[in-house]
Structure formats: structure tokens, C-alpha cells
Amino acid sequence: xxxxxxxxxxxxxxxxxxxxxxxxxxxxxxxxxxxxxxxxxxxxxxxxxxxxxxxxxxxxxxxxxxxxxxxxxxxxxxxxxxxxxxxxxxxxxxxxxxxxxxxxxxxxxxxxxxxxxxxxxxxxxxxxxxxxxxxxxxxxxxxxxxxxxxxxxxxxxxxxxxxxxxxxxxxxxxxxxxxxxxxxxxxxxxxxxxxxxxxxxxxxxxxxxxxxxxxxxxxxxxxxxxxxxxxxxxxxxxxxxxxxxxxxxxxxxxxxxxxxxxxxxxxxxxxxxxxxxxxxxxxxxxxxxxxxxxxxxxxxxxxxxxxxxxxxxxxxxxxxxxxxxxxxxxxxxxxxxxxxxxxxxxxxxxxxxxxxxxxxxxxxxxxxxxxxxxxxxxxxxxxxxxxxxxxxxxxxxxxxxxxxxxxxxxxxxxxxxxxxxxxxxxxxxxxxxxxxxxxxxxxxxxxxxxxxxxxxxxxxxxxxxxxxxxxxxxxxxxxxxxxxxxxxxxxxxxxxxxxxxxxxxxxx
Length: 508
Ligand SMILES: Cc1cc2nc3c(=O)[nH]c(=O)nc-3n(C[C@H](O)[C@H](O)[C@H](O)COP(=O)(O)OP(=O)(O)OC[C@H]3O[C@@H](n4cnc5c(N)ncnc54)[C@H](O)[C@@H]3O)c2cc1C
Description:
It is a single chain. This protein is an alpha/beta fold. It folds into three domains: 5-42 and 221-306 and 455-504, FAD/NAD(P)-binding domain; 90-203, no CATH class; 310-330 and 358-446. It is 39% helix and 21% strand. The chain has 19 helices and 20 strands. The protein has helices spanning 12-23, 67-74, 107-117, 122-142, 148-153, 155-162, 169-175, 180-186, 202-214, 222-236, 284-291, 298-303, 342-351, 390-399, 401-422, 427-430, 439-446, 460-463, 489-504; strands at 5-8, 28-31, 43-46, 50-53, 59-60, 83-85, 92-96, 99-103, 216-219, 240-242, 245-253, 256-264, 269-274, 277-280, 311-320, 333-337, 359-363, 379-388, 431-437, 477-479. Strands 8-7-16-17-18-15-19 form a seven-stranded mixed β-sheet, with helices on both faces. The chain has a five-stranded parallel β-sheet with strand order 10-2-1-14-20, with helices on one face. The longest helix is centred in the C-terminal third of the chain and has 22 residues, at 401-422. The radius of gyration is 22 Å and the shape is globular. Bound molecules: flavin-adenine dinucleotide (FAD). Flavin-adenine dinucleotide is lined by residues 8-14, 31-34, 39-41, 55-59, 246-247, 281-282, 312, 314, 385, 446-448, 453-454, 481-482, 487-489, 492.
């Protein structure tokens, strides 16, 4: 069978694109190297009873009428794939020595809380939050599909946004001279980018911060249900998602990609697959290397020249006979830093591999939905996330497996020391399962080069006008992933949906 769309990789943007195309009558075939679909969003089960999502924690843009909901409606899934909202009074709990701030949905309420903490700086704080609002509104107008009339109607917001094209979050903190502790509290979601304020694009921060303010969500039946529902749509229209198939080469004839070569990882046999159009959900740079970079236009080659985002460390845990709600946990995340300057905290962990004073995120998926399915009733799932350096872990794993495991344990212990001291005394006593992941785990299970977490790094350079999009300069070949769109659950929904609209001519 030669499908209309042969898709390499089953990450979220690929599944969204594939499901929309299948739903509109096109034939779709997906080749996925891993044994589970979903890429970074895949779900795995340990000890036959504990279920973890590899990377997704919380998501935005899932409310009624928002992008994710629009796509689900188009696929007839909106009644089946639903979401639970995080607490709008405080969806992210930011904690640092001497300060606590729960981020609310309402910008005016956020201002009030910051005024209470920093009464001498209320003017600057107010100006900063207003600027964030204006920039966020401007960026919405600038997001594709751009409507020139809208740009004119909202020129003030658009101009406000444009001035920050090359700015880091730190540049804007400095412009408004926010006190250091206020900066740290506002930027404590840094784990959502794995970049500190002095490297992070202001745009990336605004989009995510505003996105979560408008509504932070968790899927009612966990992330696996979202992924499986998209796969089901593809299969119900006769499409295929072939797991354990690693694409090892692309077929190029003149300027047209006609198919790929893939190895069935269960039999180690190689097969040829063809498609009328080939969609590339794997890292674009990696695909370009397979094809030969010289085959791409100069413009695309320039856009392919991005740095990868930093990688991460994850600890997936199960606690038994411990109700975390009694310790201040609920429908929110906890972000902790022991250091009052996130630029320094990041450098200490990422550049010096020193986790003695860690900054990390703690999430509790079991508390976010009533639906069972992630663990037995007397247990709760807890996950910890922080940054980690790929080169360091790669070298350690290759040269000294024991030292590699010790380093993972050292980070875990350092995080648990903080948890027991500040949040849940005797946490370790209740721990019945733990497994940790490093940058090399990402590389092995998500097939991402250098264990990168978010595709291209979210710096102003990569977020600017030269950002890669779906265009490859080759015929019948399109990119569709986080680096050629934007990273995250909602942004990969947009990425898949946008490419669907471009190629089908249909409008969502
Ligand atoms: C630690 C961490 C936490 C995150 N937390 C959140 C969060 O809370 N909320 C949120 O919205 N986003 C989060 N994200 C981001 C989000 O997970 C990703 O941006 C998104 O899932 C990327 O989707 P994608 O479509 O780019 O494809 P990917 O997920 O990158 O999938 C690509 C697929 O291609 C496959 N592949 C690669 N090479 C080959 C090959 N040669 N042959 C066949 N298949 C191949 C891979 O196995 C993979 O399945 C997080 C990411 C990380 C790393």
C-alpha cells in the first residue's frame, strides 16, 4: 500500500496531523521506532501496576473553544477526551527560601500577591505585569494565520510584542528593575523550558505563562488516553501505526522524497516504505543528516542550524499510605529553588553537575483527576524534574556505569532531602517504587538527539524570525515536530493542525 501520507515518528504533532488527515479521508501510515506511540508523550507501566507518562505534566489551551478542543471536536473526540482544570487560584506553587507565591489565573490577583510580598516595588511590578499582558496579546495577533487587519486594529499590542523579538526574560526583568526574589518567583517555571532567565526567550516565557494562566489542565483519563484516542482515529479509517520500526534512511529522487527505509526492531529486517507525501516528525536536523544537508536550500540549511535544548533528569515515584493532600499538595505543581538566583542555580546544576542545592519541579498526577489507572488506590504517583547535562551523563554512562547510577541516586537523594525538610517529613518511608531517567534515557526511549527535551533551545535566536517551520525545500516532504513548530502539548497540537490545514486546504 502506498499511503497518501507516510509519517516518520509518532510524536504528538504527527498523531494530530495523521488523525486529521485520516478523518478527512486520506490514507496514513506511521512508522515509530519505540514500542509505544506518543514520543515524549508516551506512557509506560512498571511493576505491572504503576503507570507514568514519560514527560507530560500539565498542559494549556485545552478549554472550550481553544486549539486542542477545536482539533478534538473536528475528530469527534471532544466528549471522550476531556481535561481537568488545575486550581485557578494557584496552579503553580513557587517556593524559595523566605518566599512563597501561588500563581493565580487572574493577572490583577497576581499583582496583588506580588505587592504583598514586595510593597516597595508595586509600581515596577504592575508595569511588568501590564507589559506581559500586552506582549501576550500582541503575540496572539502575530501567530499564524496572520490577519493583517487584526495587526492594524491592535497595532499597540503588536508593536509592544515586536520590540522584544531578541529579548531574554532577564532583559525584561532588568528593564523593569524587578527585585531579585520577584524575578525568581516569576521565573520558577524554568523547568518548563530548561533555560534560566538570562538565556530564555521572553516570547517563550510569555506564551507559556499566559497559556497556563488562561487554564492549566490534566487529561481526565491521563495522557495515555489522549495518545490512544488519536491512534484509534487513524486506525479506524484504515491507517496504520507501525511500532518498533526505526527509519534508517530517506529515499530521495531528484528533489522529491519518495519514501524511507526502516528496520523492524523485533526481526531486524529492513523494509522499504513509500508515500505520496512524507511527513518528518523526527528531529529535523537528524533527518537532514540522513538525507544529506547539501540537498536542502540555503535558507532551510540556515534554519536547521539550531542548538538543542538542554536535557533533563526525571524521577518517577510511587508512595503508599501517604495522602499528599495532607501536606499541601493538590491540583497544582510545586516548583522549588534553594538558590535565590535561577541563573546561578541553573549554572550550578547544568554546567557544574552540582545538585547539592537543587531547583526542581514536583508533580502529583494522581491528585489531578478522579480517574483511576495510574496506580493502586492506596498509592499516589509523584514525579520530580530538573535539568541535566547530556555530555556529562553520556560520558559517565559509557565510561563507568556504577558512577552513572550513583550520580542519578545522588540527585534523587538531594531532592528528597529538600522534600523531607520543607514539604513531606518521612517521605522516604512511604516510597515503594522509584525509577530515574537521565539525558541518555531520553535519547534511548524518545530517540531525541543529545537527549534534548524541547527540540531546539528556546533562546531568542531560535524563537526569532529564522525559526524552522514545516517547509523543507524538498518536494513532497514536510517537517512536523517541536523544532519545526513549538514544543509542548498544545503547541504540538497547533503544529500538526497547522500543517493539516496547509496541505488539505481545510480550515479548522
Ligand atoms: C522533561 C519534559 C517535560 C515536559 N513536560 C511537558 C509538559 O508538562 N507540558 C507540555 O505541554 N509539554 C511538555 N514537554 C514537551 C513535550 O513533551 C514535547 O514538546 C512534545 O511531546 C514533542 O512532540 P513532537 O511531535 O515534537 O514529537 P516527539 O515527542 O519528539 O516524537 C518524535 C517521535 O519520533 C520517533 N523517532 C525518532 N527517530 C525515529 C526514527 N529514526 N524512526 C522512527 N521513529 C523515530 C521517536 O521515537 C518519537 O516517538 C516536556 C518535555 C520534556 C522532555
